[in-house]
Amino acid sequence: MSDEKKILEEAFKFHGHICWASAAGTRAGLAALRTLGVKRAGASGDLHCILEIGENHGAQCFADGVQYSTGCTLGKWNIEKTGWGKLAFTLIDKKNQKAVRVSYRPGPHHKKVAESSFMRKRGQGIPPTEIPEEEAWEMVDIIWETPENEILTIGDVHPYEWEEFGEILGLVPCDQCGELVSKVYLRVVGKSHMCIPCSGYER
Question: What is the four-CA torsion angle of 105, 78, 30, 138, rounded to 10 degrees?
């Protein structure tokens, strides 16, 4: 088994189930790393990812594939999303001030995915974890074995000026609920300093 296929298997474990979109995200993330000539992010200072996903659709799975393959995660705060609902992202090499955008391409391969037994069962409301793995892998192999230029659009590497603002430190208890909250998220209500939920503010 190739190293990249091992990464794919680990990405599925990270994601929680086997699916085409997380496979596409993993493949796209690996392609972005290769194009930039960088390794998977080991620290927040290496890379930053801007995902173009939205809410409540299949791109969430794509995002997990990108996260696992690139190492850009919410916990390291080196990933963010635009909310555009697209299967695409820009990976930024912060140290060398350059970036590349990668997007998933439609085509005959996607029609095959849509017509797979896995997707037919998903359309019937069957959870992905209840579909036989061999059916899931038949679908994933479509994504994994399609030539890269047919499944991904990889943009040119371009300059990207990255401005680092540094980490915001400092947690204090909310005067209302007592839970710790980052200082910049405190809201003033009368003489009290409260977290957003307790303050009544929306943001």
Answer: -60
